[in-house]
Structures are given as C-alpha cells and as structure tokens.
Amino acid sequence: MQIDLANTNALVTGASRGIGAAIARAMGRAGARVAVHYHSQRDQADTLAAEIGQRAQTFQADLGDADACVSLWKAVTERFGRIHTLVNNAGIALSCPPEGDITGWVRGWDATMAVNLRAPGILSKLAVQHFIEHGGGRIINISSRAAFRGDQPPYLAYAASKAGLVALTRSLARGFGKSGVLAFNVAPGFTRTEMAEDFIRQYGEDYACGDIALSRLTEPADIAPIVTFLASGLADHATGCTIDVNAGSYVH
Ligand SMILES: NC(=O)c1ccc[n+]([C@@H]2O[C@H](COP(=O)([O-])OP(=O)(O)OC[C@H]3O[C@@H](n4cnc5c(N)ncnc54)[C@H](O)[C@@H]3O)[C@@H](O)[C@H]2O)c1
Q1: Ligand 1 centroid from CA 81, angstroms
Q2: Is beta strand 57-60 parallel, antiparallel or unpaired with respect to 181-188?
Q3: Model confidence over 103-149: pLDDT tens digits?
C-alpha cells in the first residue's frame, strides 16, 4: 500500500537535522507540503526544504520561548492555510548531574521542560483549535523509550519531560477524538543522531548496542516511515497509542 499525503500540509519541529529531518523528508516524499521548522541551523533547513520541494518552506523559532511557539504556529498557518499534521519532534537532552549545584540543575530542568513539554503543549493547544475549525487533524509527538523505562541520573528531566509528552498525547486523544483530532506518540529508543553522539561519548557505543535485540543502532530513517503512516489516516483508530521504535529493547 502506498502512503499518500498529497494535498496535506504538515509542520515538523526540529526538522533541520536528525529524526526531524528524516520525518520531513519522508512526509515530503509522500506528497505533503512541509513547514520545516528550525532553531539555529538555517542553512541545513534551507537545503532540506529545497531537497523536499513540494513548496516546502522553512520557519525559525526558539521553542524554549513560549511566545515564539505561538508566533511559529501563526506564521505557518498564515503561509500554508490549513495544517493537517503537527509533528512535535524538537527536543533537547541536557546532562544535569544530580551531584551538581542546585541552581544549575533547576536551570537545566526548566530548559528541558520548556522545549520538550511546554512547546509541544502550546503547539498542540493551538493545533487543536485550528483542527476543530478546519475539519480535523493529527498530532504526532516524538517522546522516548526513556518515558517508560527511565534514563540515567543526569537525564532525570529528560525522562520526565518525555513521560509528560505521553500523557499529553493520551489526553489529546481522549479529549478531542470526537472533534476529529487524533494524537499519537512515537517512542524511539537509542537513535543515531547528534543528540545520541553526546550520549555515546559519555557511555560508549557498546552500552547502546548491548541494550537492543538488533545488530545495528536505529537510524532516523527507521523512525520516519512510522510517522508518515500515522499522518496518512490509516491508523486513526490507534489514536492515543505509543509506537515503540527501539530495536527490540523491551524484548532483549
Ligand atoms: N536520538 C535518540 O536516541 C532519541 C531517542 C529517543 C527520542 N529522541 C527524540 O527525538 C527527537 C529528535 O531528536 P534527535 O535525536 O533528532 O536530536 P537532534 O539533537 O539531532 O535534533 C533535535 C532538534 O530539535 C531542535 N531544537 C533543540 N532545541 C530547540 C529549541 N530551543 N527551539 C527549537 N528547536 C530546538 C534542534 O534544532 C534539532 O533540529 C527529540 O525530541 C528527542 O528527544 C531521540
């Protein structure tokens, strides 16, 4: 079966690199017009938008800033008109060692929550209103395996933010399904991106590989087709679900 996203518009956050770039690329290939959101990597975002074609455009915003989240949604909807799919992908994994000083730890906690949880919350709130006014839509949140099994001590805030995203997704699914709003959660395990490279430097590749049932680490391109599938409408009755993409971590 061919996934067809023709005549649909999508906003993918954090699309300049890593998993977000793979998602934007795959959705574009399936026919969607993609709003490629980026924070600071303008050149990478521009290159990706040119590669995607389909009238893709780039949009800058610091999602750590609540007002910038609102401005991003406004800019995208003004430019694209109707949005059919919101992919909340942007995220940060700050290392905040518990033995560090409390001021720095709290700063890391707040920064993590702002980008990983508050921004998807704001964008989802605005998307729900928009979807209800325009005949429905889908929200796909990229959380993490860490939401379910926890993470290393320096990443307490990261795991907590991703667990919050799971609850956000389920609440959106429960609250707005009858209004045509579907919400899904995709939970990657260790995936080879720049974010993961930091972790590999800290804990080693053997640690990451020893944790999975497959012989290679997950790549961004292993996550993207699942997001495209969820965006297509073929899985709407799975609303509220989490799809684990973690190379068999749980069965290993
Ligand atoms: N790589 C992994 O092992 C892994 C595992 C589970 C979940 N995830 C999740 O997948 C998503 C993508 O991660 P990735 O591995 O591609 O990481 P990445 O660091 O390569 O990409 C993160 C993206 O988020 C954007 N971003 C960061 N801070 C931002 C801010 N303040 N404002 C706007 N954008 C900001 C970056 O610009 C970048 O495009 C994240 O939500 C991450 O938590 C990653």
Answers
A1: 26
A2: unpaired
A3: 999 999 999 999 999 999 999 999 999 999 999 999 999 999 999 99
Q: Do 168 and 120 contact (CB within 8 A), yes or no?
A: yes
Assess contact for 113 and 60: CB atoms under 8 A: no
Residue nearest to atom 7 of ligand 1 (CA): 144
The token pair that represents 102 in the structure block:
């409390």
Instruction: Work out the burial of residue 243: count CB atoms within 10 Å of its CB; fewer than 13 is exposed, 13-18 middle, 19 or more buried.
Output: middle
CA distance 217 to 194: 13
pTM of the predicted protein model: 0.98
pLDDT tens, 2-22? 899 999 999 999 999 999 999
Quick one: pLDDT band at residue 153, thresholds 50, 70, 90? very high
Pocket of ligand 1 (CB under 6 A): 14, 16-20, 38-39, 41, 62-64, 89-93, 115, 142, 144, 188, 190-191, 193-196
Distance (angstroms) between ligand 1 centre and the Cα of 89 equals 6
CATH of domain 9-245: 3.40.50.720
CA distance linking residue 163 with residue 252, whole number of Å: 22
